[in-house]
Amino acid sequence: MIGSLKGKIELKTDKLLILDVQGVGYRIFCSSATLEQLGGQGQEAKIFTHLYIRENLSDLYGFMSFEELEFFETLISVSGIGPKAALSVMMLASVETLKQAIASGQKTILTKVSGIGQRTAERIILELRDKVSASVAGIQQLSSESEVIDALIGLGYTNHQVREALKQIPSKVKKVEDRVKQALKLLGK
Q1: Which one of 35, 79, 124, 152 has the largest count of C-beta atoms within 10 Å of its C-beta?
Q2: Whole-model pTM?
Q3: Angle at CA of residue 186, ends 184 and 189, nearest 5°
């Protein structure tokens, strides 16, 4: 319904903010990480939002990035996890760290949230492991690729030279060290 809001910050506390959008103040619950990234009172802000409606309650939850919003919506899709619990989970660590924890079955990070015990943590992992595993693999692949690029640029090659060399390396070569060696062979020709 309400995908994002852009306006001036009217009030900011440790759990929420009130965003004035053309004279209407929206109360938006946010993670501490989101609140830290926002400016102070009177400054412009754009927030991606999720509208949570239940019987006699409607709340807005806000996030700095669309990725955070998607992860929040994934968390609340788990039976027994409401928006407050999902927001508390997201306050523990970055989205990438939480996805890696879920993909690798680490329930200890999830049980740090008040109200999430062993069973609920296991349910989160069971229901979300497959959903987050693909994106974690993609993040790790991008991370290793950027390490290779940084290493080669550090050796004096241009970004264009490095990217052309990386295109020629077979995808079966996964290790950063091996990719750097292969790229150096190609660049040395």
Answers
A1: 124
A2: 0.69
A3: 105
